[in-house]
Amino acid sequence: MGNPRTKADNSKLVRFNPAEGGTTRNSKLFQNVYVVIMAGGKGERFWPLSTESVPKPFLKIVGDKTLIQLTVERASKVVPLERVFVVLGQQHLDTAQKQLEILPDENFIIEPEGRDTAPCIGYSALYVLKQDKKAVMVILPADQFIPDADNFAKTISVAIEFAKTGDYLVTVGIKPVRPETGYGYINTLEPLKTIEDNVCYRVSRYVEKPDIETAKKYIHEGNYYWNGGIFIWHAKAVIAGIKRHMPELYKGLMNLKDAMASKDSGKIAGIYKNLQRKSIDYGLMEKADNVLMVPAQFNWDDVGAWSSLLRVLKLDENGNYVKGNAISIDTKDCVISGEDVIVGTIGVSNLVIVVSKEGILVCNADRAQEVREIVKRLNVESTKNAKDTS
Fold first, then answer.
1. Residue 164 contacts by C-beta under 8 Å, 6 or more apart in sequence?
2. Are residues 331 and 276 located together in one domain of the fold?
3. What's the CA gap between 149 and 101, in Å, rounded?
4. Judging by beta carbons within 10 Å of its beta carbon (0-12, 13-18, 19+), is residue 239 exposed, middle or buried?
5. How far apart are alpha carbons 123 and 131 in whole angstroms?
6. Do the bridges between strand 136-141 and strand 185-195 make them parallel or antiparallel, or are there none, so unpaired?
7. Kindly report the CA angle at 239 between 131 and 128, in degrees rounded to 5?
8. Which residues of the chain have a pLDDT value below 50?
9. Cα–Cα distance, 131 to 66 (Å, whole number)
10. Does residue 240 sit in the same domain as residue 375?
C-alpha cells in the first residue's frame, strides 16, 4: 500500500531493539497476531507545533523519538516488525516512512480519507484478513505515552490470551489515578475469566466524559477504568460485531472488500468516502454484549494537551517543563517550548508558552484543551481568505 522507497540511509535508520523481559515471540500465543497502529487525527491541541502536514504522532513530544516511533517500539515487543501495520493518510506517508524505515512499505495501510475509528478498524481488519484468515488484531493509538514497554507487552499478552478463548472484543482499562474529566470511562462487572493470576472483567457500559463530581464518584466506587482506546480481538470477531451493530458500515466494508480484491484504488477511494463516519466506541463497543476488559499493568497518559507534559515529563525545581532555550525568572508550573528562539518569562505561573515557525501560543494551563479552538478559527480565516482572493 505504500510508495516504493529508495535504499535507506542507514545513518538515519530508526532501529528498535526489544529489551529483555518482553514477550516470547515464537510462542504459540503470538501466532496469527498483528498489531495495527492508528496514526490518523490532527493533534490540534498541540498547535502550533502540531500541524496538518506533521500532526502529533510524528512529533518528538516526550523525548528523542516521535510518539509513533515509540509506539512501534512497544509493538515490536509483542510481534515481529513484519506484523506491525500503520494506518494513516496519504499526506503523512512520506513522513511516516522516513521515521519508520524499519517497516516494509506494504505495512503502511493508506486510508483514502479520515472517517473516524470504526471505518479505520474495519478497513484494517479486511487488510489483515487478506494476510491471515486467523488473524488476531491488537489496535493501538499512535500518540499515547506509555513509558513501561515491558509491562505494556505483558498486559497485551494477557489480553491476547483472553481474546483467543472466544469471539470477544477485549479492551484494556487504565486504573484512574485522579478524577479526570477529559477521558471516557469503562464500567466493569464481576470477573468473567481468569488465566493463572490474570483476570478479565465483563464490561457493563461505556461512560462519556464526566463532570468532576461524577469522576470523583467513579474513583471511590473502584470499578471504573479509563478508556485507553486499546483493543484486542479476532479480526473476524470485529467484522461480525460491525455486521450486527453497524449494518450500514458493514455493507460498505463488503463493497470495499471486493474493490480491494480487484486492487482498484479509484474504486476503493470512492467507496471509502461514503463509509459511515463513527467511532468504534459509539458504533460498536457501547452496544456489544461480548466486551471484556483487562486491567493495564503499565503507566499511561494520552498526552492530549500541552499541560499533560507537566504530569509525565521531568520538571525543573520550580515545576516547569522547558524545551529549547528559556530564561525564566520567578516562573512556576509552566510548559515552555521554544523552537530556535529564546523564550523569556518573569513572574508567571500555570501557563503554556509555545513558540514555533507556525505561530506562538500563550494560554492558561488549565485551558490547554481549548487550543483546538484556535486551529478551528485559523481554518475559518484561511477559508475566508481563499474565497476573497478567488
1. 29, 136, 234
2. no
3. 21
4. buried
5. 13
6. unpaired
7. 15
8. 1-4, 6-26
9. 28
10. no
Among residues 295, 318, 338, the one where a domain terminates is 295
- In this structure, is residue 287 part of a structural domain? yes
Nearest CA to 365 among 305, 312, 323? 305
Domain membership of residue 5 (yes or no) is no
Domain span holding position 363: 306-389
29 vs 218: CA distance, rounded Å? 34
C-alpha 33: how far from its chain's center? 19
Measured in degrees and rounded to the nearest 5, phi and psi for residue 60 equal: -90, 75
Name the helix (H) or strand (E) containing 99: helix 93-99
Q: Are 219 and 101 members of one domain?
A: yes
Output the CA angle 239-243-245, nearest 5 degrees. 115
Beta bridge partners of 91: none
Who's near 240: CB < 8 A, 6+ residues apart? 167
With cell 466494508, the residue in question is 253
Establish if 291 belongs to a structural domain: yes
**DSSP readout, 283-344?**
IIITT-S-EEEEE--S--B---SGGGHHHHS---TTS-EEEEEEEEES-BS-EEEEEEEEEE
Task: Enter the C-alpha cell of residue 239.
Answer: 467484522
State the CATH number of the domain containing residue 216: 3.90.550.10
- Statement to judge: residues 215 and 347 lie in one domain: no
Peptide linkage before 179 cis (omega within 30 of 0): no
- Taking every pair of Cα atoms in the chain, the longest distance, rounded to a whole number of angstroms, is 67
Among the three residues 272, 295, 318, which one is the final residue of a domain in this structure?
Answer: 295
Same domain, 93 and 150: yes
**Which grid cell is 273?**
468516502
Q: How far from chain centre, in Å, is Cα 60?
A: 15
Q: Is residue 236 part of a domain?
A: yes
Q: Can you name the residues that pair with 38 across neighbouring β-strands?
A: 87, 141
Q: For residue 197, what pLDDT is reported?
A: 85
Domain tally for the chain? 2
